[in-house]
């Protein structure tokens, strides 16, 4: 996906469509990864953060500076206010509300993972829920890896996951599902092209308008399905040390038969 118009129609419905995803469990796993392979991160850059699901959960350390970024400003715009604790001095200042927390939008920056508008250094970069599979060409994947290497501090980690061919073949080939949301019904048709190793997901939304008028809108997403060994090779080519290649949400080795494989890369330092 190269332009900022994709992930546009789906943006207001994304959290609803993904309501089945265990982001709390995902966040706990992420924490286990950085504790095992690194240290508590102080500056975090999330790429492809979408609607910033982790901003609404206590995933990242309270003291960490977190920047949520995504190619799609429409997705970032859906990130709702998060509860943040005010600095101690301000909280006890005269005139401050008694509540210990205030609402604030998370720090969001529309950014292409191929050309990051940051200097860093960050101690942790993450790109989750197969966002890297949207990098359709190997050269783009390499560019993204090099951009993360550039903005990370020495010893910093890049943690991401890929969806695999096994996942596509088992769950996303000639598969149709649909959902009824408030004011919207959607259908999704998924097709996996084995030769091209491309996963396509075509959405059709019927959106309720005024006076019972329904609008039909479409959005299609394509993902490149990389081999696990290819991703490892690209990471090494970019200059990362590959610390972990792990089977979905475990510490077992990730393989082609895994449905999701998590990568933990370290910037040498
Ligand atoms: C499957 S969604 C995952 C969103 C989020 N990480 C989550 O867990 O819900 C993939 C996200 O990757 C973003 N994306 C795709 N290509 C990108 C790129 N080149 N740079 C940054 N983000 C990108 C999309 O806009 C979309 O929000």
Q: How would you portray this structure in words?
A:
The structure is a single chain. With 269 residues, the chain is of the alpha/beta class. The chain has two domains: 11-163 and 226-266, Vaccinia Virus protein VP39 (Rossmann fold); 167-224, N-terminal domain of TfIIb (Single Sheet). It has seven helices and 13 strands. The chain has helices at 14-17, 23-37, 73-76, 88-92, 138-151, 165-171, 228-238; strands spanning 43-47, 65-70, 82-84, 102-104, 108-110, 122-127, 152-163, 175-181, 184-193, 198-208, 214-224, 241-247, 260-266. The strands form three sheets. A seven-stranded mixed sheet has the order 5-2-1-6-7-13-12, sandwiched between helices. It has a four-stranded antiparallel sheet with strand order 8-9-10-11. It has a two-stranded antiparallel ribbon with strand order 3-4. Strand 8 and strand 9 form a beta hairpin. Helix 5 (138-151) packs across helix 7. The mean pLDDT is 91. The protein binds S-adenosylmethionine.
Beta strand %:
25-35%
Ligand types: S-adenosylmethionine
CATH topology of the largest domain: Rossmann fold
- Return the domain count: 2
Q: Name the structural class.
A: alpha/beta
Number of helices: 7
Shape: globular
Number of strands: 13
Main sheet record: 7 strands, mixed
Strand order of the largest sheet: 5-2-1-6-7-13-12
Distance between the termini: 32 Å
Helicity, in percent?
Answer: 10-25%
| CATH superfamily annotation of the largest domain | Vaccinia Virus protein VP39
């Amino acid at each position: 996906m190269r332009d900022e118009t994709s992930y546009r129609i789906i943006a207001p419905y994304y959290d609803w469509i993904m309501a089945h995803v265990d982001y709390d469990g995902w966040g706990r796993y992420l924490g286990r990864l950085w504790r095992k392979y690194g240290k508590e991160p102080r500056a975090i850059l999330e790429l492809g953060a979408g609607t910033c699901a982790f901003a609404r959960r206590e995933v990242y350390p309270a003291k960490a500076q977190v920047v949520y970024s995504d190619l799609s400003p429409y997705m970032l715009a859906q990130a709702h206010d998060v509860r943040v604790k005010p600095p101690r001095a301000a909280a006890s200042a005269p005139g401050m509300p008694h509540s210990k927390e205030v609402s604030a939008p998370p720090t969001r920056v529309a950014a292409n993972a191929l050309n990051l508008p940051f200097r860093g250094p960050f101690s942790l970069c993450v790109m989750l829920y197969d966002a890297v599979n949207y990098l359709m060409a190997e050269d783009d994947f390499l560019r993204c890896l090099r951009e993360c290497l550039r903005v990370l501090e020495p010893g910093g980690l890049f943690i991401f996951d890929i969806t695999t061919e096994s996942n596509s073949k088992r769950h996303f080939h000639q598969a149709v599902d649909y959902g009824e949301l408030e004011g919207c019904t959607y259908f999704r048709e998924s097709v996996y092209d084995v030769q091209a190793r491309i996963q396509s997901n075509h959405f059709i939304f019927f959106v309720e308008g005024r006076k019972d008028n329904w609008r039909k809108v479409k959005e299609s997403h394509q993902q490149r399905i990389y081999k696990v060994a290819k991703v490892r090779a690209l990471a090494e080519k970019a200059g990362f040390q590959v610390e972990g290649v792990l089977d979905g949400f475990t510490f077992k080795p990730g393989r082609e038969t895994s449905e999701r494989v998590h990568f933990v890369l370290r910037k040498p330092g």
